[in-house]
Amino acid sequence: MIEVLKPGLSTTVQDAGRTGYYHLGIPPSGALDQYSLRAANLLVGNAAGAAALEVVYMGPELAFTADAVVAVTGASMVPKVNGEERPNWESFPVSAGDVLGFAYLTAGARAYIAVSGGIDVPEVLGSRSTYALGALGGLSGRPLAAGDRLPVGSGPGAAPGRSVPADLRPNLAKDVEVRVVMGLYDHRLSEAGRTAFLDSTWDLTPVADRIGFRYAGPELETVPREPPFGAGQDPSNIVDAPYPIGSIQVPGSVEPIILHRDAVSGGGYMMIATVLSGDLDVVAQSAPKTRTRFVEVDLDGALAARSDYRKRTRRLAEALEG
Amino acid sequence: MTAMAEVTPARYSWGGDEFVFVELAEEMSLQANFRAMAITKKLSDARPDGVLEICPANASYQVRFDPDVLDPHELLALLKDLEQQVGDAHELALSTRVLEIPVLYRDPWTTETLMRFRDRHQDPSATDIEYAARINGYSSVDDFIAAHSGSPWFTSMVGFVAGLPFLFQMVPRERQIIVPKYLRPRTDTPKQTVGYGGCFACIYSVRGAGGYQMLGITPAPIYDPTQTLPDFTDFMVLFRPADIVKFAPIDSDRYDELLAEVEAGTFHVTARPVEFHLQSFLDDPDGYNARLLEVLK
């Protein structure tokens, strides 16, 4: 059992996510940075997709009632056991009675805390992930609050002292490139609008959460048109359609929004591109003011990037075996 | 409405490495929606390995797939083949349900909420329903309510947030209600608000932001993540794509009675199975609707 002394800004239980209910408006949820979730779990001997805690910007303070092995990955946020620093990307032991806290965030945006045995809240629709908008999963369908008690599973665990090799840790930069496949409703953009999207450097605004990440930059020019029946008057309106996870919508032709894993499942704004599944990890680690460029790839380029991502996760698993 | 509109070829687009998006028509129509239903139903029946999510929508649909299991080009060929097989979808018969949803129009809760957001509205001096009635040419709000509740609605999409139905009125286009969304979205909408935006009615499943005009509220829960209410023992979401909805106006006494039933855990939405046949509907929409709604009696 873990007792929550301070919840942090918005700490949720997340695993690899749930599949099969998006057609009813229930999105995949799960860790926004899936690579860091895998790493945290493998460090403590859990299955790669086990439930862990996702921390945003500011860490929680947690009291352990039993011995455990813990690892913190993702954003740079130094863990402290009873006030003493511990390394990121390495597993370390905690004893019954210990308090895990955190220093301030220095890079990235989201940290993952895995505990040997995993966070053992009940599975809902095949996942322990929290979907707060729908009050579903996790701990009572919401972020942690002071006084909560988190059950911990009884997995085999691993001895502490495992470490992710330096070349398998992500580079948490203030300037990032996010690869996208153009499409969906990108034909609504004029040539100038399209060029402005791909050639501008976009700044992440403070509107950046599990549902979506909104970016500031130039207005994107659209092609003039007669609105089709049911679509609404604004050139950015469409007949309400499904939104792919990672799709970039541009309401009112300004401030593109990348929809992430708690996305609304559909709506009436044009989408002009979709972020590659693996690059959603990069978006997840973007804090407000992160300077972002969208780089176009075609489907073959997207599949090649996916294959590289798979190789990297395999190397991670091999490095942390045994 | 009696004739099938000409079918235009679908537009296919990749959504990154895991999604394919298919737009069947740029503008909304029941026919485009039926084609989305028919294609996604065939895909569900075939369910090739590697298909992860099948999301029918108003005039489009999307599929999420695992390209490590299912080659994207193979999937694309399959979807194009299904599009050919389905054609104009006029043969489509759906086994679905008619649901009766009680509505307290002009209720105190949405009225209080809309008054707080008058600065974001096209017509700050009117309520949402007065505005909707006026711009659609109804001489009174009562006439508007009669039109809104007089014909059934087709659940053309479920989503936005968990379990929210998009509803498309089953009447010829010239009789369809059209209402713009708020100028700027609200930050608050009561749970179970019956809303209207563009050509779609909706029922908000959870409290939160919203841009649709607020016409009333239903005492019927439509989403129950704890699955404690009787309508939710099988699943936490009431609505499924293709459900047919009849709005039934109620007064505030009836609202209180039904709410007491909800709180006592005895409330059930009236739901009856029906076979829905597209061509028969298109041949005689009003007559077909009347027969369709007989099942609720």
TrEMBL record, chain A:
SUPFAM superfamilies: Cyclophilin-like (SSF50891). Residues 23-313 form the Carboxyltransferase domain. Gene3D superfamilies: Cyclophilin-like. Keywords: ATP-binding, Hydrolase, Nucleotide-binding. InterPro entries: CT_A_B (IPR003778), Cyclophilin-like_dom_sf (IPR029000), PxpC (IPR052708). NCBIfam families: urea_amlyse_rel. PANTHER family: 5-OXOPROLINASE SUBUNIT C. This is Biotin-dependent carboxylase-like uncharacterized protein. The lineage of its organism: Bacteria, Bacillati, Actinomycetota, Actinomycetes, Pseudonocardiales.
UniProtKB/TrEMBL annotation, chain B:
InterPro entries: CT_C_D, Cyclophilin-like_dom_sf, PxpB. This is Urea carboxylase. One of its GO terms (molecular function) is hydrolase activity. Residues 10-230 form the Carboxyltransferase domain. SMART domains: AHS1. Keywords: ATP-binding, Hydrolase, Nucleotide-binding. The lineage of its organism: Bacteria, Bacillati, Actinomycetota, Actinomycetes, Pseudonocardiales. SUPFAM superfamilies: Cyclophilin-like (SSF50891), PH0987 N-terminal domain-like (SSF160467).
